[in-house]
Amino acid sequence: MTTLTERATALLELSPSADAWMAVCEEARLTPGRGMAALLPDGRQAAVFRARSGRVYAIDNRDPFTGAQVLARGLVGSADGRPFVASPLLKQRFDLETGRCLDDDEVAVAVYPVRTR
């Protein structure tokens, strides 16, 4: 069983490429239902979320409809049991597991694997 002290110091990492992991923050810093942005080594940004279920997700922070780096500030919800974030600008919803836009089947954002160490 994980103790409160162990959980507070658990480090959240994401994989921006197939062969690398990078530290993002202490897992305890993530607030359920809210996002945060992380700068990736190549200059891109990831939006990192802890769903209300407790699971952590990471997707591209760039809204493909506007080009703005804003998805980390979006509203987290669920549709048909699937977690999503709604862009704060035009409100398109992106599935946090697949990156697929729930409002336009031809659009998707990158999804990054996450782990706690």
Topology:
Layout: H1 4-9, E1 11-17, E2 20-26, E3 35-39, E4 45-50, E5 56-60, E6 75-79, E7 82-86, E8 93-95, E9 111-112, E10 114-116
Antiparallel strand pairs: 1-2, 1-10, 3-4, 4-5, 5-9, 6-7, 7-8
What structural class results from the helix and strand content?
A: mainly beta
Characterize the overall form: globular
| H/E element order | HEEEEEEEEEE
Oligomeric form = single chain
Distance between the termini: 15 Å
Compute the CA-based radius of gyration: 14 Å
**Number of extended strands:** 10
Largest sheet features: 4 strands, antiparallel
Output the strand order for the largest sheet. Answer: 3-4-5-9
- Spans of at least 5 consecutive residues whose pLDDT stays below 50 are 1-7
Percent of residues in β-strands:
35-45%
Helix count equals 1
Portion in helices? under 10%
Mean pLDDT, to the nearest integer, reads: 92
Quick structural summary:
The protein has one helix spanning 4-9, and strands at 11-17, 20-26, 35-39, 45-50, 56-60, 75-79, 82-86, 93-95, 111-112, 114-116. The protein is mainly β. The strands form three sheets. A four-stranded antiparallel β-sheet has the order 3-4-5-9, with no helix packed on it. A three-stranded antiparallel β-sheet has the order 2-1-10, with no helix packed on it. It has a three-stranded antiparallel β-sheet with strand order 6-7-8, with no helix packed on it.
